[in-house]
Amino acid sequence: MTTRIGVVGAGMMGSEIALIFALAGNDVLLTDQNVEAARAAIGRLEGVLDRGIGRGLFSEADKGRALGHLRAAESLEAFADRELVVEAVFEDQEIKQAVFRRLDGILGAEAIIASNTSTIPISTLASAVSAGRQTRFLGTHFFSPVHRMKLVEVIPGFDTTDEVITQVMDLCREAGKEPIRVKDVPGFAVNRVLHAFLIEAVKLVEEGVATPEDIDKACRLGLGHPMGPFELMDVVTNSLSLQAQEIMHDAYGERFRPASLLKQKVAAGHVGRKAGRGWKIYSPTR
């Protein structure tokens, strides 16, 4: 059955969340600060689909279905008929809660709001909406690249109903994902494991135990990881990694204190691939 879905935030995460729901045949609206940004994101998704066709991930029929079910929205007001809205804006509590307050006044009473936050507790974010909406508010933490990564962490808030949790997990499964239910704590499950690993990897470099390149190689060949920790940080950005670690450091204390070298990298502007420099230097064509 087709579900009317909206996605707020047309960056890499938001646009690919919109893509996987459109591929499943849902009616999807994508919005950002302006409609031009949303349209540009849909244009980038055509490239994702074309590359996926070349790798056997998608078919031409998949491309036609996805683009046929995905539209750019002029503003949040276009979301009035949406049954589920997924927020995927910048990982900042105030920015996210401002979006939720607006959505709460636009959406119908039965609509569900889901946040793609990777670290901020869901019940904290849900405090921005009315008491009735808090029963229909939860977290859906997707993983990048969304069109390939199967996992979704589904995180209920204090007041989220079981019916809403089941409904959202079913929608994720219909979109080809494997949802797991996770308790509402800072960092949830995966990021707590991941960032303990990333912090230790950076400390190994600080101590001169091995280079970033060799640690990446060791994790690929010795642990079977698809990419090493420094490759991963360069993709997701060092600044986002630092932000996540600072949130968890506040919540859990010393075990999540960010390494000094990561702070230096971010302060120097070495935030990763999109900046042309992170743990390695990237050519402008990459």
From TrEMBL:
- SUPFAM superfamilies tied to this protein: 6-phosphogluconate dehydrogenase C-terminal domain-like (SSF48179), NAD(P)-binding Rossmann-fold domains (SSF51735)
According to UniProt, where does the site described as Important for catalytic activity lie?
141
Molecular-function GO term, any one: 3-hydroxybutyryl-CoA dehydrogenase activity
Q: Where is the 3-hydroxyacyl-CoA dehydrogenase C-terminal domain?
A: 187-280
Stretches assigned to coiled coil: none
Alphabetical keyword list: Oxidoreductase
Q: Pinpoint the 3-hydroxyacyl-CoA dehydrogenase NAD binding domain residues.
A: 5-185
Q: Name one Pfam family in it.
A: 3HCDH
Its Gene Ontology biological processes? fatty acid beta-oxidation
Alphabetized InterPro entries for the sequence: 3-OHacyl-CoA_DH, 3-OHacyl-CoA_DH_CS, 3-OHacyl-CoA_DH_NAD-bd, 3HC_DH_C, 6-PGluconate_DH-like_C_sf, 6PGD_dom2, NAD(P)-bd_dom_sf
Q: Which family does it belong to?
A: Belongs to the 3-hydroxyacyl-CoA dehydrogenase family.
Q: What protein name does the entry list?
A: 3-hydroxybutyryl-CoA dehydrogenase
